[in-house]
Amino acid sequence: MAATEKRFPRATFTRKLIRICERLDACSTHTLSFKHWFLNRPESCTSTATKLWVVGSYARGALDCGDLDLVVEVHSTGPEPPQRKLMKALCGALPFVRCYAGTPAENSSGIEFPNPVEIWSGPGSHWRSAIDAITPDAAAGRAKRPIDALPFRVDQMDTHIERLEELLKLKRKGVLEWNFVEFDQDSLAPLASGEFKESEEYVARCLKLEFVSQKTLRLLPPLTRFMRKVEPDGKWHGGFPHRTQMWCGGTLLLLGRPTPSVSRFDDDPKLRQLGLVPHLSARGPNGVWLLRRGRNHADTLALSGVKAFYLAEEGSPCIVTWVDHSPGYERETDVLELFLTHADALRGIEEWNEGTEPDDQLSAEVTEVSGGGLLRLTGSCDVLRIGEIELAMTHTGSSFAGSKSLAKLADIVTALSASRSSVPGKRNFS
Questions:
Q1: CA 269 – CA 336 distance, rounded (Å)
Q2: Which of 179, 410, 162, 163 has the alpha carbon at shortest distance from 292?
Q3: What domain of life (predicted)?
């Protein structure tokens, strides 16, 4: 777990636990009204709390804790209510308190809690004595778990422990690699309207028109500053229809309570890396967790030994933007050309400059790229052109290239691996 996670004195959570027990003494039965999660019809049930256990670091006597973990045994008549609504009715909505329905052995968290301490067993029970009976222990810190090696807490993401443990296994096998970058205080400062670059206008519109939630809006200034370093040539656009997804170049940002679904990488040349960005919280950690294909990922292995050449100016790839001025609709398509040989790339410069004024001529360098480095290029364009072949990286690109589907990584490998006996015809860069 990142060192930026906040922890609080034990006494802070003792006061919260007392308030919850007092609340249960006053009223342990609630009638809840809610809508069915799928059928969207009104439902109601009556739920009664019968027992409450404290688990985790507080139950072990830790002198400081990250949160207070509670398990509440509940008996309900009628349809099962939403967990958050049920726990809020029974225990209130106190910050840094995690309430799970069930028993320590089987509950809504999905994990078994060892060494629980029963605190409350019904109105009038001796819960104060049960709290006082837990001996503070300076050596009783947070229980270590394998997933502590991950940047974020489980409750910051929309996933479960088994999936996170699988990520660790994939990293050990070299199938995945990642790094975490924490937001510092300066990066969280708001961005003035004049600070946005042309490629960041999508972010500017989100801030101005509030296309997304207020919590997501707070993420956009630090993300904009961060992506300027990670994707300096990347353009922003939304991940329609999901308002909590945004693209910048070849990086797909998942915001709010993200799900680390690494199957997204499979054979997708547009996606270079996933950026998981939970909502900002007082407890933290706050930042970006970047996941990429590792050296042993199937896509990385498929690209090994594959190389190409491209044209670059001042370190940035030369991308041609085609603009469709159809009546009532204007669309831009970014096209990047890859060359099979260094000589082909030099001819590309000559053809680009043919018939142009000296001041408008391209002064580009031929740059070689190989293996996984190709993914930085494929994520920066809508169409990848290799000789006479046009491969669509985006839906905008599929319309331009006249393709019914997006290209797979295997299509790029095939195109670059193909040998050609004849020199390609001239290309039109107008």
A1: 14
A2: 179
A3: Bacteria
Q: Write out the residue limits of the CATH 3.40.1350 domain(s) in the chain.
A: 304-417
- Residue 430, pLDDT > 60, answer no
Whether residue 7 contacts residue 65, with contact meaning beta carbons closer than 8 Å, is answered with yes
Give the relative orientation of helices 220-230 and 201-209 as an angle to the nearest 10 degrees.
Answer: 180
Q: What is the pLDDT of residues 177-202, one digit of tens each?
A: 999 999 999 999 988 877 888 888 88
The angle subtended at Cα 401 by Cα 398 and Cα 403, nearest 5°, is 55
Handedness of CA 351, 357, 360, 361 (dihedral sign): positive
- In order of 32, 339, 393, 395, 416, the CA distances from 385 in angstroms are 59, 9, 10, 15, 10
Q: Which two tokens stand for residue 107?
A: 């509950």
Contacts of residue 79, defined as CB under 8 A and 6 or more positions apart, other chains included, come to: 36, 43, 44, 45
Residue type, 424: P
What is the rounded distance in angstroms from the CA atom of residue 107 to the CA atom of residue 51? 13
The residue type found at 254 is: L
Burial of 347 (C-beta count, 10 Å sphere; 0-12/13-18/19+): middle
Tokens for 406, please give them. 């997006």
Mean pLDDT along residues 305-316: 91
Of the options 3.40.1350, 1.10.287, 1.10.150, 1.10.510, the CATH number for the domain spanning 304-417: 3.40.1350
Coil, helix or strand at residue 128: helix
- The number of C-alpha atoms within 13 Å of 146 and in the hemisphere containing its C-beta is 11
Identify the residue with better confidence: 354 or 46.
46
Q: What is the bridge-based pairing of β-strands 97-101 and 68-77?
A: parallel
DSSP 233-284: TPPEEEETTEEEEEEETTEEEEEES----GGGGTT-TT--EEEEEEPP-SS-
Locate all alpha helices (DSSP H) within 295-341, ordered by sequence: 298-303
Identify whether the C-beta of residue 427 lies closer than 8 Å to the C-beta of residue 337: yes
Alpha-carbon distance of 381 to 394, in angstroms, equals: 8
Q: pLDDT value at position 237?
A: 85
How many helices, marked H, and strands, marked E, lie in the chain? 13, 20
Two tokens at 175?
A: 């199938």
Report the top-level CATH class of 8-132: alpha beta
The CATH 3.30.460 portion of the chain extends over 8-132
> Alpha-carbon distance 336 to 378, whole Å?
8
As a whole number of angstroms, the distance between CA 107 and CA 116 comes to 13
